[in-house]
Amino acid sequence: METKILHIKVILFVLLQCTFVYAVKGQGFSCGKGEGMPPTDIRTSFPVCSGISKITTAAECQLAAEYNSKNNIDKNGGYGYRVSAPPGSGFPPGCVYNSGDNKYYFNDDTNSTDSCNSAIACICKTKPCIDCPSGSYQDEAGSTSCKSCAAGKHGLGEGKTSEIEACTKCEPGKYQSEEGQATCNPCKVNTYSPDGRVDICPNCPSGKVSPKGSTTCYNLDNMLQNVQSLSAQQGGIIKAVALSNAKSNEVKQKANGLIAKLSLNWATQDVINEAQILRNQLSTLPEYNVSHHCEQEKQRLAYGVLRTGVIVPSDAEIDDKYCLNENRNRLISSFCNFRPRFIKLLQEKLYPRLPSIPKYTGRDLWPNICCKKDNFQNLKTCNDPSGKVPRSHIVPFALAQGGNLTVGNLYGEIVDILKKDGYLQTGMNKAVDGIKNGDKLKAKLNSLFETTLLCGPREFGLPTNEAIRLCELFYPYEHMLGTYYNEVNALLKPLQRRRRRRMLGVWSGISNSFTNLMSSASAFVFGDTDEADNNDQSNVIRKLQDEIQDMKQKDAISRDKIQHLEKKDAVLEKKDTILTNQANKTSAFLAVLKQNDKTKRRLGSGSPLADELCPFVTMSDVSEYEKDIELFCTGYAHIDLNHPGTIVNLAIMTPWDIPPKMIPELREKARYEISDDCPTPLFTAKDISLQNIDGTDLFVVQLDATSPNGYLKKELPQCGAANNVALKPHIPKTTIDVKIWRDHEDCCKDTKDYNVCKAIKCLLSDDPNGIEPVKDAWTNLQVGYQYKVTGTTYTATCDNKPNNKPCGSNSRRRSLLQDEYGNSGERL
To answer: What pTM does this model have?
Structure first.
């Protein structure tokens, strides 16, 4: 009787379920195209799912796990996998929930007769139809389940009504071995897949490696040859190769330092995250904002600023990080070459003579800058030896130690090093603490870094051939560090020189008096063998007292003479130092000065001779020496004379007073009239180009730094060198005039040189279609610029201003390597 009642209850339950579903859909137990029925009925006792409520595919079972967890129907831990559990295993057929590991499984053994229970519950469908999940589809109406995408494919979204629009093949570098999946799995490290696969990706052949998700394996020899061409995957490749137990020794030998340039010892992920948080915080400060620096640079561009540019290799691909990375790499490489030389200087010339001075190592002075080992036998750790500086505050970090390679991160690291009181200046100041005149050097350093503006780095075209690209360098780093080295070396020279005191005559007199005194004392104590009995002892004592008093007076006089000679010796030593320095600087230069009795002339009067010089400043007397040197020979900082093949010296200037609407035409049709007082001009017409850089129009001028008798190559380094006869410094000078013309009709389109246009009759006076002057709209005067260069300084004015007034709001004397307010970078 009880059995019959139970059967009746079951039948009623099933009928109620069917009635509910029919009422919801309005058309029985069926769904439309692109739909399936989700499960929410979790059964822990008889009966098992059957009929329309039964889940029939693994994909539907996975959907059930996701749906029930998302809607808080249960707290399952996700879908496990497909199983084949025979009768008696405890697994009912279809989709089940295993409370043992809190996961869903699909039992595809339809012969299982096991019932639902509290340990393994049955998952059945009872709710209305929903869109088929990604990785499945339904192309037929009236079904309650979704069809799965085949293995080797992944889904394209929900609610798809055909296999074509629902499923697509796995991308190269990925695989998928199961049906009904929304995504494909990336190939593991050192495996690959040129095409999407069903099976797991095969291993790379011997001698080859690959990163995660790779479509091919990389030959080590080829990879090392091309490692400098960075791509999105190379950071992972470098790290994988460096850490590979099987190939590490081979890579270390073959790399020969190449990989080490890109990769130091990688930091742990928590340090990488910490470094990124720091970068994000600093990026909000004005000094870490490139726009802030560029806004401050605008006024300087009115007079022209000097910059150096490095030629970009023709096979390099320039992106927004290339020039930043070039600056960072050159800055740190120059620093790491400078640091051991500088420490050796301190060890040899400072520490032995001033034992009280702290004996620093390179890492002690600059703990925030990490250098690599050349042989790559051990990836260098960048941890601070003292433990005071966190790893996230040590550069280079982006890429080098595993940090994110972004524009903000690269720029931030450069600012860390070059800003006022940054990593570089702090170490430089610390090194000269306690050294005589070290405070003066610190003041120069402070002026240099205080006026440093880091606008850029910009990408230019070489003025003589804009197809050749240049990356702007914030400084010629090697020169800047070398100048600091020389300044410190000059401070240490007085410690090395000890002149012999010229006091032999004084000490000879003291010695003779002392000898006489000892002789008298000996006679008094021991007596004379022949006349001892006849001498009156009182007379002897009186005589000795007189001699002692006389000796005291001579001693006082001698001490005064010693002090006087010491002072005189110090003065002479100082003069000798000055004269020695002057002689060293002018030994090779004097011969040229003696031969140079020719009258200086303007450019264009003939070809320059090798021994001709620029005009120079004349002085009325020797007393003007210090004044003129201090004013005109302040050193240079933004000129690089050491790398003529790869580094280009540039002048950059705003095209002041040129009508903006005319500038696009002038990029091609500007002609330049140039005069220069030096026999070899600082630049010619072909060296000028008008370029649009990041939305800003700028004159970019290539300066001549290679001609043997040019201003930069010959005159600039000799600024302040004195003639040993007249004791007057040689201070070169020149005046450069530039006038702008417009070749509207291309009368002389094959040249930029006004003089050539004039020679071929392309002036308006000769040809109605000839060149015409570019005029200031306000003054109606021809636009032109005049530069007066004296020693290492210059001033700029506009010819089109009344009374030759300056371009912009005012005029300043600028240094060829100074910043705006006359702070020299060479004379640190």
So the answer is: 0.55
